[in-house]
Design brief:
By secondary structure, this protein is of the alpha+beta class. It is built from nine helices and eight strands.
Length: 310
């Protein structure tokens, strides 16, 4: 019997073929998009890796990284179509932007952008003397779909970003005169110096703990689906019932700020209900939808690290 006769005489085979075709048609543009996103990511990695760096000559990114310190929070207004970690990651990004982002409602310290992803600046892995004051040793700790909870050099992470906008939220501890005129010449008090050293050491411990836990629990496989569930729970109003974070990346950052003593110790449920947008509101003036810091701690005015209208 030929294939044509078998196809026409067996309704089950015919139905299976129709279902396969109907599922293949919408899958084609997704496959094309994913291949394009992967190609773009690989090209970006190649450009960053082979970038010509002239000794003693700083780029704009170098100068921006010098503004950062451990404990600072970085917000990303990502392009969902650029998510090269796969369709689930792109869908999680789309849901996060459409559900968890309020836009410019007049209460944010940031004028434009829909921020649904964030990370926290932590010390890098260098143990050489003076590394704690070296901007090149700074890393960004974040929860991702590709590798789970990852810690990557801050400069490389910034150069690799395809986000529409990247905002730095500088964290200032009690007594610190950061970004003020001649602030570099002002000697910190013993209390302020102690707080900064404590922040540094606690963030190192936090980094090691979560990197180990992520690898052990294979968090990278769960991130996208956990993000989608969090957005849907927020949309339906069921998030107080389920013990999952609304935004995994925001939950990670809040947990780090709590461990280093900057953020108020909330219960686990309150921490899990934090959104990325909440970092853009001053907890001294808002009771709701904000990140509450301990007395004396504050986020300074946002610094634009990357901005594009495209």
């Amino acid at each position: 019997m030929t294939f044509g006769k078998l196809f026409s005489s067996n309704p089950r085979i015919r139905l299976a073929a129709q279902l396969s075709l109907s599922s293949l048609v919408p899958a084609l543009p997704i496959i094309y998009w994913y291949q394009h996103a992967q190609k773009d990511r690989n090209q970006r990695e190649h450009d960053v890796r082979t970038k010509l760096r002239i000794p003693a000559v700083q780029t704009v990114d170098d100068l921006l990284v010098e503004k950062c310190q451990p404990g600072d929070v970085i917000l990303f207004d990502r392009r969902c179509e650029m998510c090269a970690s796969g369709p689930p990651a792109a869908l999680a990004c789309i849901l996060g932007k459409s559900i968890l982002c309020d836009g410019d409602d007049g209460t944010r310290s940031v004028e434009n952008g829909s921020y649904e992803h964030c990370g926290i600046v932590v010390p890098g892995f260098s143990t050489r003397q003076g590394a704690e004051h070296d901007p090149s040793n700074l890393c960004l700790l974040e929860a991702t779909s590709g590798g789970g909870i990852v810690c990557r050099p801050l400069l490389t992470r910034l150069e690799m970003s395809r986000s529409r906008s990247v905002i730095l939220m500088p964290l200032s501890c009690p007594g610190e005169r950061r970004y003020e005129v001649n602030s570099d010449d002002v000697e910190l008090s013993e209390k302020t110096q102690f707080l900064k050293e404590q922040t540094y050491s606690e963030l190192v411990k936090f980094r090691e703990k979560w990197l180990e836990d992520s690898k052990k629990e294979q968090y990278g496989r769960q991130h996208s689906y956990l993000s989608m569930m969090g957005s849907i729970m927020y949309l339906t109003g069921l998030y107080p019932t389920f013990p999952i974070p609304i935004s995994p990346s925001a939950w990670l950052v809040v947990s780090a700020l709590q461990d280093c003593g900057a953020a108020m110790k909330l219960n686990e449920k309150q921490s899990q209900q934090t959104r990325v947008e909440d970092f853009t509101r001053d907890g001294r003036f808002f009771e709701k939808d904000t990140v509450r810091l301990r007395p004396g701690w504050k986020f300074l005015s946002p610094v634009v690290m990357r901005e594009s209208s495209v």
